[in-house]
From TrEMBL:
Residues 16-142 form the Trehalase-like N-terminal domain. GO terms for molecular function: trehalase activity. Pfam families: Glyco_hydro_15, TREH_N. Residues 230-576 form the GH15-like domain. One of its GO terms (biological process) is trehalose catabolic process. Keywords: Hydrolase. This is Glycoside hydrolase family 15 protein.
Length: 583
């Protein structure tokens, strides 16, 4: 294992990080102005800043004086303002990845401002491609004070720091500003020769306009500011092909020293369906159309062999492997994902739910309807096969997988433009699937159980009724809701399922996706007070930047797992809009 660089920024609790993103890649920014994670040129490429998981590579802009940290996003965007109150005044750094992003070139914008009093700020740039394997080389300053260099296969250019000084494979600078002064730093990283530099003001103007165009204000949503922010996060995580990565990061542990570290820099079909349905509910047509476009392409290309996940460009997820890095504290490093070897039946049902949501809004084209036929045929052919399920466990005949396929079939059967004969066929297939699930996955108490051989309660089994597999008033629906609430709920947080005899919170964190699903389930049962309680409790389970991880450690009030988790933001957005719709 590699020895950590003693000069690298120390890791922070996950709740302290903010996200910068432009659709092609994302960067994690810590409270000391330390960008410690970014892959380039694309989400699934090697990191050029990898200090987050113990590698070399970071870009820090930090006040020299002692400070107290704060920060906030400009509304409807991923433009972040780091704000430091120092012993000598107030310093801000406006931070963004230029938006909309370019496929081959990442542009990091940092505008340092002395808001109150004079400011002294230290800049430390140490890019290192290949997760730290390729240090900065060929460093050169031209007559205008612009620095250029190479790291791995990437071209590097820094403008705005003519007085920087080389320090081995890094650049260091001290920025001195009088009260009211500002300094723009523009860092470019590209796998192609760099174009002529653009003025910082022009880059900022286009970034502001780009965010204003893609993130409108969701009128009427509960927690309206957070709902809009969730939309911005999803937009930042979404590539031009419509695919939204599950998270910007890899290897952030779900539980310290438990080995549950995964690479989530890929597009899960199930997550994409959640995002599209949330976008449909919120009237976010660009996100909806992108989700439909991505899923449609995968169905038409791969048919019944559609994988559970792809890269953001639609290629196969690489095999899982480890790197020679220390990892984030409590975890270890990993790239690639074993999901590429799994069959997950429910992705076909979720795809139908997504396509039906688009059809109801008259946003489903001919290719989308062909994709719906493909998904329905896949369900007909494969619904009796064991699969890995929503939680990606051992292959089994999971109740959730089959029931969500029934929900998808019912939704597309009822969608505008579906012929009467085809609708009847799909409804009959849904009835058959529900009947077969009832025969081997209905617990003696009247609730759904996880699989024929696993009698436990599973929070995922709230979803089929929410999506229409069964009526809200069906006894199986209400019995399942009661059992999930009683067995897996703790103080309006929800856990996925019981792993063993340990207390729920000792096995893993509360699952925030499930908490927002419970809010929707209570709303479906017309218990608005409980719905709001679940929504508000889980909405608060984030850090200062309003980002959600997959899990929340209730005892320590800490985020666990990769950051930010797109499906949590999607369900927050859907719940925010849905709970407000009847108020």
């Amino acid at each position: 294992m590699s020895t950590p660089d003693a000069t690298a920024p120390a890791p922070h609790a996950l709740r302290d990080y903010a996200l910068l993103a432009d659709g092609h890649r994302g960067a994690l920014l810590g409270p000391r102005g330390d960008i410690v994670w970014m892959c380039a040129p694309a989400w699934h490429d090697d990191a050029v800043f990898a200090a987050l998981i113990g590698g070399t590579g970071w870009y820090a802009v930090t006040p020299a004086a002692p400070f107290v940290w704060g920060g906030y996003y400009e509304p409807g965007s991923l433009v972040w303002r780091s704000r430091w109150t120092t012993t000598g005044g107030i310093v801000e750094c406006r931070e963004a990845l230029a938006h909309p992003g370019e496929r081959h070139r990442a542009v990091l914008l940092r505008r340092i401002e002395a808001v109150h009093g004079d400011a002294r700020v230290e800049v430390h740039l140490r890019p290192a491609a290949g997760f730290g394997a390729h240090p900065l080389r060929e460093l050169h300053r031209d007559e205008r004070g612009t620095w250029t260099g190479r790291t791995g296969g990437l071209h590097v250019r820094l403008t705005g720091a003519p007085d920087a000084r080389p320090d081995g494979a890094a650049l260091r600078a001290t920025v001195l500003l009088e009260a009211g002064g500002r300094r723009d730093l523009v860092l470019e990283l590209s796998d192609r020769p760099l174009p002529k530099p653009e003025p910082a003001d022009a880059l900022w103007r286009s970034t502001e306009a780009g965010w204003a165009d893609c993130v409108p204000d969701p009128v009427g949503a509960m927690g309206q500011r957070d709902a809009r922010h969730a939309h911005a996060v999803l937009a930042g995580l979404t590539g031009p092909g419509g695919g939204t990565v599950a998270a910007a990061t890899t290897s952030l542990p779900e539980r310290a020293e438990q080995g549950r570290n995964y690479d989530y820099r890929y597009v899960w079909i199930r997550d994409q369906a959640y995002i599209g349905q949330a976008a449909a509910a919120a009237g976010a047509h660009e996100l909806l159309d992108g989700s439909v476009r991505f899923v449609t392409a995968r169905l038409l290309e791969d048919g019944a062999g559609m994988a559970p996940a792809y890269t953001v460009t639609g290629s196969a997820v690489p095999d899982q492997r480890t790197l020679d890095l220390p990892g984030y504290p409590g975890g270890f490093d990993v790239v690639g994902n074993h999901v590429n070897r799994q069959f997950q039946l429910d992705v076909f049902g979720e795809s139908l739910l997504l396509l039906a949501a688009a059809a109801r809004r008259d946003r489903l084209d001919v290719d989308g309807r062909l994709a719906a036929l493909t998904a329905a045929d896949a369900i007909a052919a494969r619904h009796r096969e064991p699969d890995a399920g929503i939680w990606e466990l051992d292959a089994d005949r999971w109740a959730h997988s089959r029931l969500i396929c029934a929900a998808g079939l019912r939704a597309i059967a009822a969608a505008p433009g579906t012929g009467r004969a085809r609708a009847a066929h799909w409804e009959a297939l849904a009835d058959l699937i529900v009947a077969e699930a009832c025969a081997d996955c209905l617990h003696p108490s009247g609730r759904w159980q996880r699989s024929p051989g696993r009698a436990g309660v599973d929070a995922a089994l709230l979803l089929p009724a929410l999506r229409g597999a069964l009526p809200a008033g069906d006894p199986r629906t209400t019995a399942t809701l009661r059992a999930v609430r009683r067995n897996l709920g703790r103080d309006h947080y929800l856990y996925r399922f019981r792993h063993d005899r340990r207390p729920l919170e000792d096995a893993e964190g509360a699952f925030l996706l499930c908490g927002f699903v419970m809010a929707l389930a209570e709303h479906q049962q017309h218990d608005e007070v409980e719905a709001v309680r679940w929504f508000e409790r889980n909405r608060a389970a984030c850090g200062p930047a309003g980002l959600y991880a997959e899990e929340f450690d209730v005892a320590q009030r800490q985020l666990r797992g990769n950051l930010p988790q797109s499906f949590v933001h999607a369900l927050l957005l859907e719940a925010a809009v849905t709970l407000a719709s009847d108020r």
